[in-house]
Amino acid sequence: PLMVVFDDEVMAYGCFCKFMDVMEDNFPHGKTMDSNFFNMRLLFEVYDRELFELMRSNGDYTHFFFSYRWYLLDLKRELVYDDIFKCWECIWAARHCCTGRFTLFLCTSLVHNYRDVILKNNMDFTEIIKFFNDM
Fold it and tell me: Which DSSP symbol is given to 75?
């Protein structure tokens, strides 16, 4: 997407390098990913106990590992190409004006948006991974 926006290899490369500096903590050696999973768990444990209990009882996937790629790529694969730019603009602007955890709230809302489907189908860990990967 950076090449599309800038249409300049040097500018796109520079922005990509800066972007990777920002995203570095999401990779396995960083602590941000564990923090994201922990915070999602707490949010669901508090505000949607029914869904949390289903997740816990169906193979305990309250670790939220199914959301790994959402955080890793700032939801790039979960949205259509035209919408991802708007999403990224919101995520990146939020880091400067209100919170660095805006992606956490987007990911939480993604699960919440499909809450009824997850509950109705009594999804286990494998099913929820497949469900979100096939979206």
Answer: T
